[in-house]
Write a structure and sequence with these properties.
The chain is α+β, with helices and mostly antiparallel strands. The chain has helices at residues 2-22, 148-154, 165-175, 202-205, and strands at 26-28, 38-39, 46-48, 67-71, 81-85, 107-114, 119-123, 126-129, 132-135, 179-183, 188-192, 208-209, 213-221.
Length: 224
């Protein structure tokens, strides 16, 4: 009889946990994908090469055509990948997650994750906007498009990265990283590369003024 009561109690607890998880407030972005369409370059557009690894490999022009930029003529949207002028870097005032050995380029690309007057934080490798879970692929810690389980399942296999025990401890810490809550000022956005550990972005220099964003990436250059 005691066992039966215990099982019922356990089941009730599990149902309560499931109910709480299902009712967690979320911000869902199901429209943004990692698919870059081929685009005919028209007047007023520009193209760039990008060969860094702060973004998903989808954006690496070694693997395909140049990236096509269109002028930012409307308010930026969450999920947009933008080409922007990086602010000056004062290493005495950078954010705690910054790597002091990194130096940003004059121009770079990253993804808009938080919008003006929102707050953003990272808890256990997950982005929260105004305390709501950001439910999309770019809302969690990834390493070259892979989550923690996939990354470690493929690690040290032929064709994949090599990572010793110290490296693995560091990567485990990365997948569960935290960032304190930050309030985004009016007229600013918060940018993250898709691979947070390899990106110089708002983790380093804080939110970016929208007037520093000149272009939005709309696809790859269509081959003739």
């Amino acid at each position: 009889m005691v066992i039966r009561v215990f099982n019922v109690a356990t089941a009730c607890c599990l149902l309560l946990i499931s109910f709480t998880a299902c009712n967690e407030e979320r911000i869902v972005d199901s429209k943004t994908t990692l698919i870059l369409p081929e685009v005919e370059v028209k007047q007023g557009m520009e193209t760039i090469t990008y060969q860094l690894d702060g973004m998903d490999e989808t954006y690496n022009t070694k693997l395909g055509g140049k990236l096509v930029l269109s002028e930012l003529n409307e308010p930026p949207k969450r999920g947009d990948v933008v080409y922007y002028k990086t602010p000056s870097l004062n290493m005495e005032h950078v954010f705690p997650n910054a790597n002091p050995g990194w130096k940003p380029q004059i121009y770079d690309i990253a993804r808009i994750v938080a919008l003006p007057e929102e707050s953003i934080m990272i808890r256990d490798g997950q982005v929260y906007i105004d305390e709501k879970k950001l439910d999309t692929f770019y809302g969690k810690a990834l390493m070259w498009g892979q989550g923690e389980e996939s990354y470690f399942n493929n690690l040290n296999k032929p064709g994949s990265g090599v990572c010793d025990s110290d490296c693995q401890k560091s990567m485990t810490k990365y997948f569960h990283m935290d960032m304190p809550e930050i309030k985004i000022p009016a007229g600013h956005v918060f940018l993250l590369g898709d691979t947070w550990a390899r990106s110089v972005d708002s983790q380093t220099y804080g939110s970016i003024a929208i007037d520093q964003i000149e272009w939005v990436i709309i696809g790859r250059e269509r081959k003739p």
